[in-house]
Amino acid sequence: MRLISCHDGKLLALSAAQLGPSPARTFVTGLAPIDALLPGGAFACGSVHELLTEPGQGSAFFFAALLAYRAASPLAASQTLAPAPTPHAPIVWCDPKGELYPPALSAHGIRLDQLFLLHPAEAQQVWAVCECLRCKGVSAVVAAPPCLSRVEARRLQLSAERGGGVGLLLRTAGPGSTHYAAATRWLIRPTPGERTVQRWNIQLIHGHGGRVGQTVILEYHRETNLVRAAEQLADRPSQKKSRPITRSA
Amino acid sequence: MDHGITSHPAPAGLAVAPTRRLSAGAPSLPSIQNRKSKIENPILVIVRSIADRQQIVCVSAEAHALGIRCGMTLTQARALYADVDHAESEPQRDLKAMMALGRWMMRFSPVVALDCVLDKDQRATPPTSLLLDVTGCERLFHGLDNLIRQASDALSRIGITARLAIAPTPGAAWALALGCEQEGAIVGQEDLESALAPLPSASLRIGEELAAALHHLGLATVGQLMQLPRDLLPSRFGPLLLERLDQALGRIPEPLVPLEHRTPVGARMEFDGAVSSLEAIWSIFQQLIGRVIAQLVHRGCGARQLDIELLRNYAPPLRKTIHLSRASRDSVNLFNLFRCALEDVQPPRRSRLRGRPPRPPIPPRSPASASVRLIKTVDDGFTGLVLSVPNYEPLADEQISLLEHEQYAGQIELDRLIERLRVRLGGEAIVQAELVESYVPELAWRHDAGEAGAKAELLAPRGRSSAAGTTLARKRKKIAAPLRSLPTPPAPSTRPLHLLRPPAEVRVMVSPSHDQEGRPVAFTHENEVRRVLHAAGPERIGGRWWDGHDKTRDYFDVEDPFGRRFWIFRVAQSGKWFLHGVFE
């Protein structure tokens, strides 16, 4: 089967082999509802994934940490025929303002000897992130780049393709994130949880071949350090089972 | 001149003893010279701590004049004179300084040897003098007296007081340098015996113990020793004395072990005219780096530091230093680092007029770096390029097993990435974190000290042993060792991923109100009132009272109706509330 693709004013002939799942490595989160949203049931390595949050809602640190952890130390089931990467591959977290708190990351399972904190100047952030993405030794790069131009977004994706790692971009939904070249984009919104359970709505908003538009609830149980994902039930908001102990009227 | 210790036609030894004291075998002499510049007090002794006492191993002339002698303890010296300054003996540094001086002395003779005296346990004591074979060198300096004067002048110019002597044998030169009152004695073969005869017997390099024994027997001078029957000397004093005597008199040869001549690794090229195009500089750099790599390959070493000097007309040269985290002699890697280092150099005007510059020969970097930051102006271009490698260390050829090849390649690439980022963004651009055992959240981690150590090592001067050179890769392996997991991480999940630095003060409504112990029900942050739906806590964290932080904090993990979770705390003493982190 031959397909014709029109891209950037040029016609390209594609073969079916190019369209199928690329031989590149993939990784899964281990949370079935999230994996099920994805094309091929797994996140693609060697590409950029964007994690969007609404303005004023912070950044999706937790989901990014989860993905970075899984990209760096993949689950056994996710391994294809490709050679297994190192068990604790390096993660670069671009943190120009020093917001990240590494001990919390280590409590979530990311070892501090695999974590590299990058502190670039504002103007060189995209360059530095590109360099990290191009490096074959880095398994995941987490960054919150400023407003990206179309070229810069594409450059990040190309760098990730060369390096084979995962780029996780924390961006704010809105006019600042109109240009993207990511394999998948996710919208993460906090949603009311319980006293020791924190919840997020995770929605796939872009991803070729994925179930775009679907929302999954990600739950994090504080006390047991457990992460769960559940499909959102139709027409039923997640219920607050327990009332807070002290609550103003 | 008809001297003969070896097969050289006219051998002559020049002993240089950079000493302030005449006692033979006084160690740490260069260090006295070194420290003098730092320590103001001229009454200085160098001590070696042996168990719980500090024994003096070297004294300055001023201290000697006060009656302070080697072998005393520091307390005894202080009893003699209260205001005695002391410094710890550093034999390794002294040896290094002595070797450096020896290499410097190679301007007078190609054969320079450190004089290592063996003590009674056959251990080499730190060298205290240098022996130069100046055979044939007198022609260059128009005579031996000129040579010795020039050497003496040069040494005094760099602040080293030394005693010099020239004699046909190293032993005799040493004895004359230390034992002769006359400075700069030159003795030929014919009057060797007569010159040695009045010298004290300790000047034969026989060690203090043997010298003391001879002194007790009344054998004060070498001449008295020479008159004794030869057969008796070994049976009475051991084989060393006769050997030294024969060596001094030239009866048995004493070959010198010369210092290895270390040519500095480097290459330079001067241009015919000013070269203004950066591309041309790049291609010249590639030529030069090829030469440098050839020298490094010859030595089996890799560069750890690369100094670049771009010579300019009417301006001081532009200097750049590249530190490498692992020894490398890979031209592509070095070239890329060079390009990173030169990024803040403005391409000169002429090249800008040519429009878009052609792509450099090796473009493995991202196009972003092609945009050159314009900081320094280069008006006339460069007139030369000098490369030098002041710090290099042996590069082991590593055997890579087939299966781990990918991991290994990744690690190499990661090291290069770190080098690149550091060259371009500065040393603090990429760091690792390390847990610190502390309950105060913001003090529970720090930037890795190991990294800083590695950096300090990179900045260390050359000449250190290769064993001390630790690459970042090895550092990381060390980090991965189980020792690192000793500080217990905080209880899982109770710490936010996003921590504010410093904590932001917030206004909080508590219930019951006006209660220092109340639970938060709403708080105002960034002009937005957030009702608290759930509040987990409090988690009380005491301050580090021993450091002066005596505030106790009560942390609450609060969630607003939209599901955002914050980590706020109340300072128990003042009742003020702060937002410290966001769970997001």
Question: Can you describe what's shown?
Answer:
The complex is a heterodimer of chains A (249) and B (584). Chain A contains 6 helices and 13 strands. Chain A has 249 residues and is of the alpha/beta class. In chain A, the strands form 3 sheets. Chain A has a 9-stranded mixed β-sheet, with helices on both faces. A two-stranded antiparallel ribbon of chain A has the order 1-2. In chain A, a hairpin with a 7-residue loop joins strand 11 (197-207) and strand 12. The longest helix of chain A has 14 residues, at 150-163. Chain A is globular and about 55 Å long. Residues 77-83 of chain A have low confidence and may be disordered. Chain B is an alpha+beta fold and 584 residues long. Chain B contains 17 helices and 21 strands. Chain B is elongated and about 105 Å long. Chain B is 30% helix and 26% strand. The chains are: A alpha/beta (249), B alpha+beta (584).
- Counting helices, strands and paired strands, the structural category of chain B is alpha+beta
Shape of chain B: elongated
**Order of strands across the widest beta sheet of chain A?**
7-6-8-9-5-10-11-12-13
> How much is the average pLDDT of chain A?
81
Tell me the fraction of residues in β-strands of chain A, as a range. Answer: 25-35%
Order of helices and strands of chain A: EEHEHEEHEHEHEHEEEEE
Helical coverage of chain A, percent range: 10-25%
Radius of gyration of chain A: 19 Å
- Give the N-terminus to C-terminus distance of chain B in angstroms: 90 Å
Main pleated sheet of chain B: 7 strands, antiparallel
Largest sheet of chain A: 9 strands, mixed
Uncertain residue segments of chain B: 1-13, 17-32, 350-378, 449-490
Structure annotation, total helices of chain B: 17
